[in-house]
Amino acid sequence: MSTKTGRRNFIKTAGVAGLYAALGPGFTRIVPSQAALRRVGIIGLDTSHSVEFIKSLNKAKDTATYNSYYVSIAYPYGSKKIKSSYSRIDQFTQMAKENGVTIAGSIDELLNNCDVVLLETNDGNLHLEQATKVFKSGKKVFIDKPVAAQMKDVISIYQLAKKYNTPMFSASSLRYIEKAQQVRAHSYGAVLGACAFSPATIDASHTDLFWYGIHGVELLYTIMGTGCVSVQQTSTADTDVVVGTWDDGRIGVFRGTRNGKHDYGGIVHAEKATVYIDKYDGYDPLLKEIIKFFETGIAPVAAAETLEIYAFMDAAAKSKMNKGQRVTLQKIVL
């Protein structure tokens, strides 16, 4: 490098540094080097979750908000059979492109061009096949709800993650509602019982509550913790009510709705207060936990808890088929 060129680069660098200094200590801009950027690959552009994650991550790409993780590539499919999912793929693919995302022609292409994975495909029937490819690559993966469409596939996914020693976890964003996390931390004393609610629309291709009721059931488990031993379900065209009995005698109730306002929340009966969970905090609290997981490889939700959540919903479906009879949860040992 010539002396003249070196002086010019120094003046340019000093000028930029001076500009930020002049803006004062309250102005911070962190621009990571290309080597520091972490590439996220998304499988499935058939859900609004994918778009929300792309917008949040790529908007903050040049900051420390999400530790420089950004969505670099996505594979659109995704459901090819569920109309409410596949009908949105073209729209969401275009939105991904507008946010700087490369569209992959296959999962293999995606895995060759990312560091970690968000498996977002809305159709849980595809998750076992898709997740297996990710596990074999060894890349850490978050699997969005539902883990799978049927219980046997949920168990297989966790068994394969263990076989290939690939870190994974799954969770609903409702788990990270601030007040729910406060309850889980016993900020109001021990939890004596709770009722959680969410929409519970059903798709014939999935075990009933796996499709959408998972949101409210996961909120219930966030509050109550594990230990449910049996459930009974009452079901009508518009409503599901599942009453779970925990091994310590506590009662937890999930109410799933299919009409009225599309809403989420719960009531917690704790030692020191009755707590109303009525403010949904969006996707960002979950996304922050996903990024921590990508950094550490430590799942914030234990496999045993997620497996019990799905065993709860599977037992509820069996109770419904048997006209509300009590059904014992399946015991799952990986």
TrEMBL record:
Residue ranges of domain Gfo/Idh/MocA-like oxidoreductase N-terminal in the record: 39-166
Pfam families xrefs: GFO_IDH_MocA
Domain of life: Bacteria
GO molecular function: nucleotide binding
Designated name of the protein: Dehydrogenase
Organism: Niabella soli DSM 19437
